[in-house]
């Protein structure tokens, strides 16, 4: 999005955190990361999602053509791999790739009942915690994200997923297991 960045994302989260913590409350944040997200998008699932948005048949055919039979190679330290055809994923260094990824995860972001922030494949779920029901709600949203991820064949990188509790007393930081 124009005029949006990782800094904007961080400022939005910081504002929410400060509002809760300044009042003596606690904010729990789940930091989630998809594993090789742009490379893992299933084309058939993506096209089904785009169709559900009401994209015209001509546009669907154009996007399908854009995604299929893409020849790729890896270049690293002066070495280049053989060409191969991608069967999944959206182009990362393109204008259309990030848009297609955002459309792919759109239903996830609109289906949770807590605050969310997303930037590329990094997602934050967060809510103020005042009682056990708030904790259960955040847990339920995490469970929903995990199920959605499995259903849409987009794996979470659990080594990069964490829950952090912010309070005036201390900061609790632990990996999700």
Automatic annotation (TrEMBL):
Coiled-coil residues: none
Domain Reverse transcriptase stretches: 1-177
Listed InterPro entries: DNA/RNA_pol_sf, RT_dom
GO process terms (BP): DNA biosynthetic process
Short name of one Pfam family: RVT_1
Protein name: Reverse transcriptase domain-containing protein
Biological source species: Zophobas morio
